[in-house]
Amino acid sequence: MKQDASRNAAYTVDCEDYVHVVEFNPFENGDSGNLIAYGGNNYVVIGTCTFQEEEADVEGIQYKTLRTFHHGVRVDGIAWSPETRLDSLPPLIKFCTSAADMKIRLFTSDLQDKNEYKVLEGHTDFINGLVFDPKEGQEIASVSDDHTCRIWNLEGVQTAHFVLHSPGMSVCWHPEETFKI
Length: 181
Prior knowledge:
Blueprint: E1 21-24, E2 34-39, E3 43-51, E4 61-70, E5 75-80, E6 93-99, E7 104-109, E8 115-120, E9 127-132, E10 139-144, E11 148-153, E12 158-163
Antiparallel strand pairs: 1-2, 2-3, 3-4, 5-6, 6-7, 7-8, 9-10, 10-11, 11-12
Keywords: Repeat, WD repeat
WD repeats: 120-162
GO cellular component, one term: nuclear pore outer ring
C-alpha cells in the first residue's frame, strides 16, 4: 500500500489494506515483545513488535504477524483482555472488537487450532468505546451513540445497561475498584 510522503512515521509495518484502528496490549503477556492488533475493512491482525529502544540487538522495529482473523465488516475498535498470554501452553489470545454493524465480537485463539468468536448484540447505534475489566477480564464494558453503557459477560450476555444523557464516547474501568467504570 502506498504511503503518504507528507507523513513522517518513526516506524512502519507493511499491510495490504487500510488500517482503521491500532491497539497495543496494555497488559503483561509473558513475552519480550509487545502484542499489537490492527483492524481494517474486514480483518484483524495480531502481531508482536519489538522496538530498538527495548532490545539492543533490534534495529528500528522487529515485527512478526501471529494471526490474521477474518472479521467480515470494518473494525472500529479493539480491546485486549488481561487473560492474553503468550507464555502459556497453549498461548491464549483474547480480544474484542467493535464494528460498523453495531456489534461486538469476542475472539479467542490459541494461535493453532482453536479460533473462536462470539457476537454480542444489543447496541442500536455506533459503538465508540469498549474495554475489558482489567483485573480478571471476565466482563466487557461498551458505550455507544445510542446513549447507553452496557456490561457483558464472556458468554455474550448483557449483565447491566446504563442510560446516558448523551452518546458515550469512551469507557474505562477503575484500576483498583472493578465495580466502578
